[in-house]
Amino acid sequence: MRKRTDRWRAAAACIALCGVLTACGQKEKAQDLKEPEITAESSEGENGGGSGKEPEITIENGGKEQQAEGTQGADSSGAEEHEYRIIRDQTFEANLNPLGKVTFVSYEPEAGENSTADAWFELKDGDRTVTVLDGVYKDNNREKERFQKVEAVSFPDYNSDGFNDIIIICSYLPLSGTEAGRSEVRIYSGSESGAFTLEKGLSEAADSALAEKTVQSVLGFLGAGRKNEASAGWKQTYIDYLQAQDGEEWVGYQLIYLNDDDIPEFVKIGNSEAVGCMIAAYAGGSVVENQLNRLYFSYIEKGNLLCNSEGNMDSYYDLVYTMADGQLSLVASGYYGAKDNSKLEFDENGDVVYQYEWNGTLMSREEYSQALNAVYDTSKARDGYVWEQYLSREQAIQKISEMQQ
């Protein structure tokens, strides 16, 4: 019987409970794993008494080498067909509600076994597999790209239901061509039963909306933690802020619900295109201001997406933002217009011929529209306000005062 011992510092487990771990370092083959027993050991320091070193986690594997078990999730069934190995730096203990202390284990396909096999993940309680997380594809294989690494894992309660959820970010490389690699978000919602459900639609929406994929940007997209934000002070904070506004510079106000919490944002509408609109949001006990270009914008209510669509003189743009901690962050941008507005060209229908660019890539008008809608579903968008149907400063203060806490 062969025995292999791997050790991690217990500090790594503590860091994992706080949020993000970045995949790196050595990896252990999953075929060496046979129902691993996870125990904690204390190592004595140089001065004795166990004070020198932190406790270490030991994984002991005995018996004949075999492929790792665990394919309870239907979407992970393909994992049985190929050899995998543990990703050591993305395997750690976590204390999850309602499961308690478990070990989160990450696996990657053995090099050369299957170039399109995807990573897979399971939760273990000692030598017992608690659950295997569903993969993105039923056979756990990807058609045109290969797994590169696990970039981050986190266990937030993004929907504030009292149960831990899981966010995983993996990166992939194309099998051929010159395209760059990409990162992909997986969002699993936890439940009272201890099961985790892959939220495919929500994961795809986060992928489309976020230019940079990190745990923090995903949480910002989800509006995590803001549903239960203390509301005792937001109303008075808004009222004090409104009372200090210049009645001539700002002609009106409108309350909107941009992110998924119970505290509205309010729109300040400028007296000219030059002044533009401003989105004011409550965060951390104060008002955060976000200046938009010119006057027009739309937003997806409770969807945490806003599009500033404006321009003039045959030069236009669509700037898509998401909000985190009251601050708008750009996630995608498109520009279109005439190359030379002094020498306009027209098509057979008499429309001006424009050049379209999305996230720095030139494309046709139809491609531009598809790219915009992939990030920002214009069919769900609503105008930020209706001209001359907005609230006066006094009306906005009264409306906020009458709102429930």
Structure, explained:
The structure is a single chain. With 405 residues, the chain is mainly beta. It folds into two domains: 219 residues, no CATH class; 169 residues, no CATH class. Helices cover 14% and strands 37% of the residues. The strands form five sheets. The chain has a seven-stranded antiparallel beta sheet with strand order 23-22-21-20-19-18-24, with helices on one face. A hairpin with a 2-residue loop joins strand 8 and strand 9. Helix 4 runs antiparallel to helix 6.
Topology overview:
Elements: E1 4-9, H1 10-18, E2 27-29, E3 37-41, E4 56-61, E5 84-87, E6 92-96, E7 100-109, E8 120-125, E9 128-132, E10 145-154, E11 166-174, E12 182-190, E13 196-198, H2 200-209, H3 215-222, H4 234-243, E14 250-256, E15 265-270, E16 277-283, E17 286-291, E18 298-300, E19 305-312, E20 315-324, E21 327-337, E22 355-358, E23 361-363, H5 365-375, E24 382-383, H6 393-402
Antiparallel strand pairs: 1-4, 2-5, 3-4, 5-7, 6-7, 7-8, 8-9, 10-11, 11-12, 12-13, 14-15, 15-16, 16-17, 18-19, 18-24, 19-20, 20-21, 21-22, 22-23
